[in-house]
Fold:
Amino acid sequence: MGIVKDYMMRTLVSVCEDDQIKEAIRIMYKAEMSVLPVVNSENKFLGTIYSENILKNILPEKYGYLVNNRLLYEVNQAAENLIEVKERGVKEYMSTRTSVVMENDKMYKIADVMLDNKESILFVVNESGNLRGYISRADLLYYLLKVCNKQDE
Structure:
C-alpha cells in the first residue's frame, strides 16, 4: 500500500504569519493557488490562508453574490476595502483549524480526511510538524488508479 510521501507534491510556496495580506495575494496569483500554507520561521505548519477569507472581508455584499447592475460599484468598494486590509498580517485572516496529513500516512486513510473536509488539497507535515508538501484529489485519484490496475493484473 502507498504512503502519502510517495504521491505528494513537494514543490509549493508558503507564507509566514507575519507576512502582509498583499504579499499573500501576490503569491496566490503567481502560484495559481487559492489557498496557501502558513508557516513560522522554522517551517512549522501553523494553518492556511484562503483567498475566500480575504474576499469575505473586503466584498461589501455576501461573498459570491454580486448583482449585475451593481458590479462596478461592488468591485470599486472591494478595492477600497482592500486598501484597509492589504497591510495587515496573514495571522489575522488565516485558519488554524486546518486538517493536515502526515507524510507517512497510508494513502487509503487520506481519502476520508480529504472528502470529509471538502478540501481539494491537504498539506503534508512530518513528525516534527514541518511542512513537507501537499497532496491533491488528483494525487488520490492516481493512487486509486494504480490500485485498480494491480487488481486487473
